[in-house]
Amino acid sequence: MMLHHHIRNICGADKAYQQFERLPKLYAEWNAKINVISRKDIDELIVRHILHSLAIAKLIQFKPNTSILDVGTGGGFPGIPLAIMFPECQFHLVDAIAKKIKVVQAIASDLGLSNVTAEQARAEQITTTYDFIVSRAVTDFPTFYRWVGKNIAPHSKNTLPNGILCLKGGDLTEEIKGFQKHIRLYNIHDFFTEEFFETKKILYFSKDTLS
Question: Which of 7, 70, 140, 172 is the most buried (most CB within 10 A)?
């Protein structure tokens, strides 16, 4: 399976590209043992999972030593692709379902991702603070914020203030009511032109007031 040209363009290092090249085969093998991705989606892994995750890397280039918590990571998205892209950052991937964490740990180990830790846990149980919390369609934003608002570290070092980056779809008008001063929405279709991304967005939240 040929990797998408977008991934080649995003990659800054050959090692990262080689790791991305291995992902489809690794996920196909693990998904046959422990089903964490639907059959339809496994056939579209590069666009619907890897590239979707990397939309965050189009919005922000995390500086070295940035800490990122991936809540409800499932099979490792967006955390695994972002960990490949940013090897000098630390990623903590959590999910409530043990079999999913088993797959994440195996994929991270197979790729030699020493910057990834994976844990079976619920967001409410996590007490550590991080520069950014990322997720993909885990729950509505108000609920998600109740879970992880406490985990945003106070001192920022990146181009965007510390906060939450959620991969979302559809109309978010009702969902973000009451949070508008703290949220920016970015259309992923502005980064990637594939039809899949037409309704996909990145929701960026900061405790700071955003203009």
Answer: 70
Q: Are 68 and 44 in contact (CB under 8 A)?
A: no
pLDDT, tens digit, 9 for 90 and up, residues 141-171? 999 999 999 999 999 999 999 999 999 999 9
How many whole angstroms separate alpha carbon 209 and alpha carbon 140?
21
Q: What is the pTM of this model?
A: 0.95
Q: Pull the structure tokens for residue 88.
A: 């000098």
End-to-end CA distance of the chain, in Å? Answer: 43
* Torsion over CA: 45, 33, 125, 88 (sign): negative
Query: Exposed/middle/buried for 40, CB within 10 Å: 0-12, 13-18, 19+?
Result: exposed
**Cα–Cα–Cα angle for 170, 165, 125, rounded to 5 degrees:** 110
